[in-house]
Every structure is written in C-alpha cells, then in structure tokens.
Amino acid sequence: MDGGNYSMVSEFLLLGLTSSWEIQILLFLFFTIFYVASMVGNLLIVLTIISDHHLHSPMYFLLANLSFIDTGVSSIATPKMIYDLFRKHKVISLKGCITQMFFIHTVGGTEMVLLIVMAYDRYIAICKPLHYMTIMNPRMCICLLAVAWTIGLIHSVVQLAFVVNLPFCGTNQMDSFYCDFPRFIKLACVDTYRLQFLVTANSGFISMGTFFILIVSYIFILVTVRKHSSDGLAKALSTLSAHITVVVFFFGPCIIVYVWLFPTLPIDKFLAIFDVIITPFMNPVIYTFRNKEMKVAMGRLLVKSLHFRKSPFMHSLSNSC
C-alpha cells in the first residue's frame, strides 16, 4: 500500500458502544455502580485478609492476590470508558493505546496463571491435607505468585513485540471502547494476516490451555476424592464450586474473543464489558457469599472499625464533660 496518500496516525478515535444519549446515561450508571462495587469489594477482601490473622493461610493469600489483580483489571480500561461516554471525540494516543494493551495482557495473563495456582492449592488441601502446610509454605506461595507475574509479563511483552513497530497511516477509527490487539492490528496499513494469526494463537493458546488445565485438575480432584470417600465428594464439590464459577466467568469471554478469529460482530464488545467489569465484580461476590470464614472475618473487621471510630468520639465526649 502506498503510504504517501495518508498522514501518519498518532492517536486513535474510539467509536465506543453507542451514540444514543439515553443509552449513554444508562451505561454511565451501570458502569459506575459496577466499577465502584468491584473496587470496594476486592479492596475489602484484601484488607480483611491482611488484618485478620485467622485468614493468614495459603488459600487466602492467593485470594487476596486475585482480588488485587481484579482491581487492576477493572481500572485499566473502565475509568476512561466511563469518562468517554459523554465525550464527542473519544481519543487515545498511540503510546497510550500500547500502554493499555500492555497492562491488560500482563494482568490478564497473570490472573490466568494464578487461577492454576489456586487450583493446585485446592488439590493439595483436599487430596493431601496432612502435607498441606508443608507443601504450601510461605516461600512456595511467594514463588508461585512470582511465576504467575513473570508469565503474565512475558505473555504481554511477546504480544507487544509483534505489533509495537506496525505502521499506521490509514483510518484511525477503532470500533471499540478500549485498545486491544485484534482491532489495533486491523488498522495497520500493511498486510497483517500472519500477524493476526500469531497474536490470536498466542492469546487463544494461553486461554484455551489454561482453561483445559483447570477443568482437568478439578475433575481429577473430584475423582480422587470420590475414590477415597463418597461423603467427601459433596464437600469437595462445594469447595471447588466457587473456583469453577470464577473460571467460567473469566475464560468464557476470553476464549470467544481470541479463539473466534477476529469477530466482526459487535458481540466482542459486550464480552469485553463482561471481562473488564462484570467478572472483577463477581469474584468478591462469589468468594464472599459462599465462604463462611470470609463473612465472619468481614464482620470482625466491621466491628473493629466501628469501635475505632467510636473510641475517639467517646474520649472527646468524656473530656468535654
């Protein structure tokens, strides 16, 4: 293609979700409520686990890190998306777009690996309970977490290596509300068929591979428990149900977006909304409402906070008397 007929692109125009004012107001309310609830819920889980010594165990250490990662998932694209709802020209710079994609795939890749680590933690806890604390010691937990972040970082850097030097000299309109590789690559003014395949294979492979490993591991745990005790199967299923639900919520949209080769239908927009807003909101709901220890710990934290606020007030009241 002759690039001389075009000016070089330095920013992208995001077309967003809709141009209807009424729908934009509804989306603003919907996104704001879910974003605030997601941030509060995930940060509350992190604060509860840190402050309550009863929850200082490998499972809750991993859960706190999952919640911390979910705050990142929510915050990378959602605040700008909410801000852009009432802007006529929704623009993002080329560098800003690349930065957004880097963090999306770093955090997303890290969360995928962390879910495998959490499945391994449940396998040890259910199938080898006597050796649980020996195997899942603090050093092992930190090492597994470091491996998760390293793999997430490598995945993101590999993706960026494919696209960072692409020339953009044609249209700068991106039919989305945030930057991601499929739509980003399609705007390049070179033949990107092979590049599309490589990027899709990278993200699709890690999504499908991780999902397959998790499902097989959960089946293996349930089969192992059933062989040893039929009574323990119901308890194991109850323990794993929250993990399985989170896995389905997280991987469903990822697999459809990246395995379904660069969809042209707008369904990928709504799947992206699900991935960046709904899933981070659902994780604290699932792990809190289905976990008695977390509910009790949050109750203790609430009592402590109320007592802390009341004590200075009562002290000042007694001094004034």
Written account of the structure:
This protein is mainly alpha-helical and 321 residues long. It contains 10 helices and 3 strands; from the N terminus they run E-H-H-E-H-H-H-E-H-H-H-H-H. It has helices spanning 21-51, 58-84, 94-127, 132-135, 138-163, 181-186, 193-228, 231-259, 267-289, 292-320; strands spanning 11-14, 91-93, 173-174. The chain has a 3-stranded mixed beta sheet with strand order 2-1-3. The protein is globular and about 65 Å long. The N and C termini lie far apart (84 Å). Mean pLDDT is 82; it is low at 1-6.
Along the chain, the helix and strand elements come as EHHEHHHEHHHHH
Specify the structural class: mainly alpha
Catalogue the unreliable spans: 1-6
- Approximate helicity band: over 70%
**What is the global morphology?**
globular
Sheet with most strands: strand arrangement: 2-1-3
Number of strands: 3
Strand content: under 5%
- Beginning-to-end CA distance, first to last residue: 84 Å
Q: Major sheet: size, sense and barrel closure?
A: 3 strands, mixed
SS field, number of helical segments:
10
Taking all Cα atoms into account, the compactness measure Rg is: 23 Å
On the 0 to 100 scale, the average pLDDT is 82
